[in-house]
């Protein structure tokens, strides 16, 4: 046994330096990981152009560019916030059911396919956003559209 006692000196550090005036102001989203995961494919569908601009900026800055790409990053945040707002207005019950399921099942999508199907239908019908999974092999049914979910406890 060691005679040395642990010392914890971790503190929350908040940078209060204001951003330059040329960087547009935007409110943070303020959502936890479950709602963001639930909405992620719809955010990707609506915000693809903004995400691509941001990633291009970061690539051209060679991994740096935190301040140089802040303007593009703020556009991504605004777009994602608009998707969440629209989902809350149009499909609140389905959205809450899905992200609540994710929260209770360790963020594993395959546990929540039933709630996901209801959410996908609502978002498509009311917001015209469709879930597409990047990299799905052509000719293969995407996992969220399969009739039988093999590994799901909530068939």
Structural description of this entry:
- By secondary structure, this protein is mainly α.
- The chain is 50% helix and 0% strand.
- It contains four helices and no strands.
- The radius of gyration is 20 Å and the shape is globular.
- The protein starts with 32 loop residues before the first helix and ends in a 28-residue tail after the last helix.
How do the strands and helices of this protein lay out in sequence?
Layout: H1 33-60, H2 70-90, H3 92-104, H4 113-127
Helix pairs in contact: 1-2, 1-3, 3-4
Brief overview, please?
The protein is built from 4 helices and no strands. It has helices at residues 33-60, 70-90, 92-104, 113-127.
Q: Could you give the order of the helices and strands?
A: HHHH
Query: How is the biggest beta sheet arranged?
Result: none
Q: What is the share of helical residues?
A: 40-55%
Number of strands: 0
The computed structural class is mainly alpha
What value does the Rg take, in angstroms? 20 Å
What spatial form do the alpha-carbon principal axes imply? Answer: globular
Number of helices: 4
Q: What distance lies between the first and last C-alpha atoms, to the nearest angstrom?
A: 51 Å
* Mean model confidence by pLDDT: 85
Uncertain spans, ≥5 residues at pLDDT below 50? none
Share of residues in strands: under 5%
Give a quick set of tags describing it:
155 residues; mainly alpha; 4 helices
């Amino acid at each position: 046994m060691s005679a040395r006692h642990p010392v914890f000196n971790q503190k929350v550090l908040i940078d209060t330096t204001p951003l330059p005036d040329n960087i547009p102001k935007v409110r943070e989203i303020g959502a936890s990981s479950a709602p963001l995961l639930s909405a992620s494919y719809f955010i990707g569908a609506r915000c693809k152009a903004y995400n691509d601009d941001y990633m291009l900026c970061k690539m051209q800055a060679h991994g740096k560019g935190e301040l140089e790409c802040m303007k593009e990053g703020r556009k991504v945040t605004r777009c994602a916030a608009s998707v969440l707002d629209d989902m809350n207005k149009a499909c609140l019950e389905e959205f809450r059911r899905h992200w609540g399921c994710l929260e209770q099942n360790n963020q594993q999508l395959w546990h929540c396919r039933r709630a996901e199907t209801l959410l996908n239908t609502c978002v498509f019908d009311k917001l015209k956003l469709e879930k597409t999974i990047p990299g799905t092999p052509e000719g293969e049914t995407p996992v969220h559209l399969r009739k039988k979910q093999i590994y799901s406890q909530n068939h």
